Automatic annotation (TrEMBL):
Name the record gives this protein: Aminotransferase-like plant mobile domain-containing protein
InterPro entries, per the entry: AminoTfrase-like_pln_mobile, MAIN-like
Limits of the Aminotransferase-like plant mobile domain: 6-345
Signal peptide: none
Gene Ontology BP annotations: meristem maintenance
Superkingdom assignment: Eukaryota
Pfam family, one: PMD
């Protein structure tokens, strides 16, 4: 299990996630995980080729058979009694073992990277399964460093956060190490101890996350986190944890438009989070919206559909780059907004989760579960 994760803390933030804007709605306005956050926290590339390759379910399944050189309808064998391919996902541990058995260096590396990526950036809700779409980006080893892995991981996490907000959802997946480290960066109230490290190291590896008990204690922590978040002010946030210029070397962080991982596309709008760039928050314009979307309570048929032309937006970075100085001006103090922003925000969101008198949650709580399987290691490309 992911023993370094505080699922109660993550659940408290999921309750505040708004999938229409891909931002957390807090008592003081919006805040989100941005591309320069991914860069600093994980140290993986956020610029490069958009991860927009797709394939049909039948093609993905066929690719899995070609990867392991076996029928994926058969059982894995050994200590595993399950099939290689089940419910649209591939058996992880069996794949790692099979990669070594093939005695083909390229296949062994491909299987290893498949398991690594599926255990870190693109974690599935199951405990021992991998999304076959990951393999689409591993087939040509020469292109591995061409992709915007960080943007793909963020798109995938945005989607999983959206699914987790549905009433029928009982778990959370995606790169939860990114989410938890992001919380530590921006919210000093929740920070554990931190190790010193070199400036170029992934900041996620610096946090010493304590191992926390589950059960009743986890539910009590969740209630406490809800109350603490309800009482937060904008001055309690470290708006620029990497320094006022922490985004300047990551121009892609100012891109506006959809980001993608295979068939998943999610809107990305830095104008809603200007304080994270050291600029005064204004009332944002309407976002670029999907052609169609369907987010049922169960989350099992969660669909966000974008027209194919939106893929061109990523390549047109000059036209799609937010001009900070045109949109706003640098903050005189870190939490600054235009005067009318808070009133505008409060008419479009309810910024508190618990009732002010009885402490009862106003929204359905996300059930606290340990999800996915062992975090193998934080990779760098």
């Amino acid at each position: 299990m992911m023993q370094h994760l505080d699922m109660s803390l993550l659940s408290a933030f999921v309750e505040r996630w708004q999938p229409d804007t891909n931002t957390f709605h807090m008592p003081f306005g919006e805040i989100s995980i941005l591309l320069h956050d991914v860069h600093h926290i994980l140290r993986i590339p956020v610029d490069g080729e958009l991860m927009g390759d797709e394939a049909s379910p039948d093609t993905l399944k066929s690719d899995m058979g070609g990867l392991v050189r076996l029928s994926v309808d058969a059982q894995v064998g050994g200590k595993w009694k399950s099939k290689w391919y089940d419910n649209g996902a591939m058996h992880a541990e069996g794949l790692l073992v099979r990669g070594g058995e093939l005695k083909i260096k390229e296949m062994e590396v491909q299987c290893y990277l498949f398991v690594l990526l599926g255990s870190t950036l693109f974690v599935d809700k199951s405990r021992d399964r991998l999304r076959p779409a990951i393999n689409l980006f591993l087939k040509d080893h020469r292109r591995l460093t061409d992709y915007a892995w960080g943007a793909g991981a963020l798109a995938y996490l945005y989607r999983q956060l959206g699914v987790a907000t549905r009433a029928g959802s009982k778990s959370l997946c995606g790169c939860l190490t990114l989410l938890q480290a992001w919380i530590y960066e921006y919210f000093p109230l929740f920070r554990p101890s931190q190790l010193p490290q070199s400036p170029d190291a992934p900041r996620a590896s610096s946090w010493i996350s304590p191992r926390l008990p589950g059960g009743d204690e986890a539910r009590q922590r969740l209630a406490r986190y809800r109350q603490l978040l309800d009482e937060l002010s904008a001055d309690d946030v470290t708006w620029t944890p990497y320094g006022r210029d922490g985004h300047t070397d990551i121009p892609r962080s100012l891109y506006t438009g959809p980001i993608r991982f295979s068939d998943i596309a999610e809107g990305y709008d830095p104008a809603r989070c200007l304080r994270q760039f050291g600029y005064r928050q204004i009332i944002p314009c309407a976002m670029t919206v999907p052609h169609d979307q369907y987010r049922p309570a169960s989350g099992s048929s969660y669909i966000v559909y974008w027209d194919s032309w939106v893929n061109q937006l990523w390549d047109n970075v000059a036209a799609r780059r937010l001009d900070l100085n045109f949109a706003s001006r640098p903050c005189e103090h870190p939490s600054e907004t235009v005067e009318e922003y808070v009133d505008w925000f409060l008419t479009r969101s309810h910024p508190r989760i618990t009732h002010p008198t009885d402490g009862v949650p106003q929204l359905r709580p996300l059930l606290v579960h340990q999800v996915s399987y062992d975090f193998l290691l934080l990779f760098q490309i």
